[in-house]
Specification:
This protein folds into 3 domains: about 5-70, Molybdopterin biosynthesis moea protein, domain 2 (Alpha-Beta Complex); about 80-285, Hypothetical protein af1432 (Orthogonal Bundle); about 290-335. The protein has about 325 residues and is an alpha+beta fold. The protein is built from 12 helices and 10 strands. About 40% of the residues are buried. The strands form 3 sheets. It has a 5-stranded antiparallel β-sheet, with no helix packed on it. Strands 1-5-2 form a 3-stranded antiparallel β-sheet, with no helix packed on it.
Length: about 325
């Protein structure tokens, strides 16, 4: 069993990474011992496409000795429709940046595949966890936010058409960053889509308003709560949540405290109904999950109080830990 260095553009599914793969910025993208899937190979090639001479170290036979841990293998099972959706969005952004026409029909098909699933809520929360296990780039973020918008809209009993439109708003909310990386990107995104695609005004307003805040402190127009569009309010919550999740440590951080924080900020910054819908939809996903406590003990979440969702009841081998009363106890990681 030997290590070998190959150009990253020759990486294919089935290979096993022999050392950590780092982003040019120094951030770790893939852990040593990861078995490469076709989707992961595609993403790494995309990330390093501007650095054609970058090499990657792999095991040439049998995988990593003694340690079969793989970030990709450990991530939840996400079907190919979602991976196709992420790749389609990347291609769409590339096409738009070149002034080409957006292939809207295929993008819409990808979004339909994203939101119309059996047990869609659990499926979308798995997607959010999955996006934290690979580089959280622009198109990956768009897919996750689209899924979150679907969860929030579905929880509020929106119609199928409204759920779809809310998801489109989330899917394209940052597409203006193709042209503008500053506070002008919401308006740039609307302009881009108006020029290259036929999209409803409600979706465009959602994209335009996703950085507006209830108290008028947002951008690009400083709108206040009554003036912010419905999809803009939903996308703002979904975007804030996924951005926050990317800043947490670990491949599978415990996300209920983040959702609680957004609910707490809702009266000032976010739509309270959308924020509470996000939290309510997330609670069932964590019920019964295995976790590691700050003490190092491992256990299982057995009860979540919606009023203290970030501090649940955890059963370990030796005791039951009530994180809501034992203030020194908290959840370090989801296993």
């Amino acid at each position: 069993m030997e290590r070998q260095r190959i150009p990253i553009q020759k990486l294919v599914g089935g290979m096993t990474v022999a050392s950590d793969v780092l982003h040019p910025s120094g951030r770790k993208l893939v852990s040593e011992g990861t078995t490469v899937t076709p989707n992961l190979a595609y993403r790494l090639k995309s990330i390093f496409s501007s650095l054609p001479h970058t090499d990657i170290e792999i095991w040439t036979a049998g995988g990593a000795p003694g340690n079969q841990y793989s970030t990709t293998q450990k991530a939840p099972s996400i079907d190919e429709d979602l991976l196709t959706a992420a790749e389609q969005l990347e291609r769409s952004m590339t096409a738009l940046s070149r002034g080409e026409t957006l292939p809207l029909e295929s993008v819409e098909t990808a979004v339909v595949n994203l939101v119309n699933k059996e047990n869609p809520q659990r499926h979308i929360w798995q997607l959010v966890e999955h996006t934290l296990s690979v580089d959280p780039n622009l198109y990956n973020h768009g897919v996750a936010v689209a899924g979150l918008c679907a969860v929030i809209a579905r929880w509020q009993d929106f119609s199928s058409e409204q759920i779809f439109e809310a998801s489109l708003s989330g899917y394209f909310h940052d597409i203006g960053k193709v042209w503008a990386s500053n506070k002008n990107h919401p308006l740039a995104g609307v302009q881009l889509l108006q020029e290259h695609a036929s999209m409803s005004l409600d979706v465009l307003r959602g994209i335009r308003d996703h950085h507006e805040r209830n108290d008028g402190s947002g951008y690009p127009r400083g709108l206040k709560a009554p003036e912010i569009s419905t999809y803009g309010r939903i996308t703002a919550v979904a975007n804030a949540f996924h951005n926050g999740s990317q800043e947490l440590n670990g491949q599978r951080p415990f996300l209920l405290p983040l959702a609680e924080h957004i609910v707490a900020e809702a009266p000032r910054f976010y739509d309270p109904v959308a924020a509470k819908a996000l939290l309510a939809s997330l609670i069932p996903f964590y019920q019964g999950r295995s976790v590691r406590l700050s003490s190092g003990e491992k256990g299982q979440i057995v009860f979540i109080d919606p009023e203290r969702a970030g501090r649940p009841l955890v059963m370990t081998d030796d005791s039951i830990v009530d994180c809501s009363t034992e203030t020194a106890a908290s959840i370090d990681a989801v296993l």
